[in-house]
Amino acid sequence: MRPIASEQDPLRYPLNEIFGTQAHVRVLRVMAVEVEGPLTTSDIAKRTGLTVPGAQKALGKLLRSGFIYRVGGGRKHQYEIQRSDRLMQIAIELFQSEKKRYERLLSAIKNEINNLTPPPHAAWIQAVPREIDDPLILGLLHETLYLTKCANYLRTGLDGVEKDFDLTIELEGYTKADIPDLKLDGITILFGVVPNKTTGSTRQRAKNAMTHRQKDGQLKLMSRRLAHIIQQDGSIVRRAKDHIDSLLMEDQGRAAGDLMEWRNILDTYSIQRLIRFVTSSSERAKRLRQSNPFFAILNTDERSMLEAELGEQV
User: What is the phi/psi pair of residue 58, to 5°?
Assistant: First the structure.
């Protein structure tokens, strides 16, 4: 049985065409707020989580609607959103509002975590909702002595967040003894650092602790690999900008100066100049490597590239 009783023409109701399927929404979201410049079909498929045929189908429909357009020629066509169209400008604002809403949610959760005393070792998003009514699941790593108290305190603080965002949040508490059994692939860190599953004893870590020169050498090696990632995918710059903007919404103390310096670099440097800077041996480059925002926003594939270069977790 057809759910639609009567047809509506796309001239009067173009939003039916624009947002008619989840594939359309994913494609437009990527083009509107996640990247700058044109994308190939394979790029769009990778970024949206669609199959290449699925991305081709969505692009074909959006192309015919006039809300995206094709650039370039030959076999490797690229596509870009029609930013001069007023309806598309409003759609872009809608996607930006969606993104800012999520950033406000993360900020609200982080504020509650920052209120915990003593602070936890780490906190993270363990699972995101798959359906509209599914819960957001957080993980909390703390000392056994403080875990129950801090988990209860955080649970109370999250009540207000749930109300403000009309969302159910569940909390799972862990101690260091649970680390070997934790599934940490794809998590989003909100606070601290989750210890590596293969991390040895405190004495062994101290024995193997790197000197300042060794740490600087490792950062330089990571920066060379990072330059390659930036060269391959310029959208990482936008992700870094968004990450800095999110951090600067909160009090960063003395770190705010370096973050603002990075923000200015990302706004004013070309890709090639940025690549030269992150691999530079200048004193300024060495100083800012300590607060490099790119390392915090790498996706799983990009982080794997760094780990393959270093031969260990970063």
Answer: -65, -40
